[in-house]
Amino acid sequence: MNYKKVKEHLAKKEEAVKNLMEFLTNENSYDDIMECLAITQTAAMKMADELNIYQKGRTDLEQFVIFFDMVQCLMFTIKPLARIAEQEAEDGE
Questions:
Q1: pTM of the model
Q2: CA distance 49 to 55
Q3: Residue 17 contacts residue 85 (beta carbons within 8 Å)
Q4: Which uninterrupted H or E stretch holds 65?
């Protein structure tokens, strides 16, 4: 990659990180998102269990588990950015 493309690539990454940190600061905190994820995961698994009872095991719970696992991994990956966003918000006050 030439210098211009590398510079453009880095600028795009910086913009994406900035937007994510703004979201974590202004929209919902990391802890709020994790709490919502836990509540949603519990509710979805309860519904899936009930469907299994009525449909005699025909519901594919594996897809629920895979989806929530991916989201949790994503959340754990952005946790350091969330902590930086919290610190910046506190420093700005």
A1: 0.69
A2: 10
A3: no
A4: helix 61-92
Mean pLDDT of 4-11: 89
Token code pair at residue 26: 């202004």
Pairwise CA distance, residues 39 & 62, whole Å: 18
pLDDT tens digit sequence for 29-71: 888 999 999 999 999 888 877 877 776 656 567 787 888 889 9
Cβ atoms of 61 and 8 closer than 8 Å: no
* Residues 68, 34 contacting (CB under 8 angstroms): no
Q: Give me the residue spans of the domains in the chain.
A: 28-92
Per the listing, tokens 């949603």 go with 40
- Are 17 and 82 in contact, with CB atoms under 8 Å apart? no
